[in-house]
Amino acid sequence: MSAAASSSETDKTQIQIQFITKQPQYSVPDIPYAVPSAISIQELNSLINQLIKESDVQNEIQKSIEFDFLAADEFIRTTLGEHISVHGLSTETILSVEYVERLPAPHPFDCLLHDDWVSAVHSTDKWILSGCYDNTLHLWTAKGKHLMTIPGHTGAVKAVSWVSSQDDITTFVSASRDQTLLLWEWNTNENTVECVQTCKG
């Protein structure tokens, strides 16, 4: 048998699947469906939307919905047959295919630009402290306003953390690849920073 003929036979193979979801508003009848192994994600979407429409007796869902599909806890990104082959799934029994509504990727509220890679971040409800590979620290408001750039390390900053806050004095610490840990005091009223302790090791 030629490779082309073998591929054609595979495309015609029927697989018994059962749709499941954790979103009850999109549930469909709990029965097996026979689908071709070559069915694509787009075709699965069309099928599940058709089944939802048939099950929606109160006509509450007015438009088509984009879904992602999982089999064996892995998202299906190829044809169903290819997914089954890659993950070694059995076609001798009914295959459970979970579907979840596809949501758009989140958009950032703001972008806090740095001059180099950011290697450490720690935040409170008011402030953001970041450390960079260019050896600097940065202080920001929680709304993204840059307050100051703080030099002091001679190596990339690898960790930062707020320590305490009392009146106008806020204490934080930074650790660097220069083998130092620096303790800082920030006067939030005057917006000035002083290194008050250096730990080297």
Short description:
Keywords: Nucleus, Repeat, WD repeat. By secondary structure, the chain is α+β, with helices and mostly antiparallel strands.
Tell me what you see in this structure:
The termini are far apart. A 5-stranded mixed beta sheet has the order 2-1-5-3-4, with helices on one face. A 4-stranded antiparallel beta sheet has the order 6-7-8-9, with no helix packed on it. The chain has a 4-stranded antiparallel beta sheet with strand order 10-11-12-13, with no helix packed on it. It is of the alpha+beta class and 201 residues long. The protein is elongated, with a radius of gyration of 28 Å. The chain contains 3 helices and 13 strands. Residues 1-7 have low confidence and may be disordered. 16% of the residues lie in helices and 41% in strands. It has 2 domains: 14-101, Ubiquitin-like (UB roll) (Roll); 118-200, Thrombin, subunit H (Beta Barrel), CATH 2.40.10.480. Strand 6 (118-123) and strand 7 form a beta hairpin. It has helices at 3-12, 41-55, 80-86, and strands at residues 14-20, 33-36, 67-71, 74-75, 95-101, 118-123, 127-132, 137-141, 146-150, 157-166, 169-176, 180-187, 192-200.
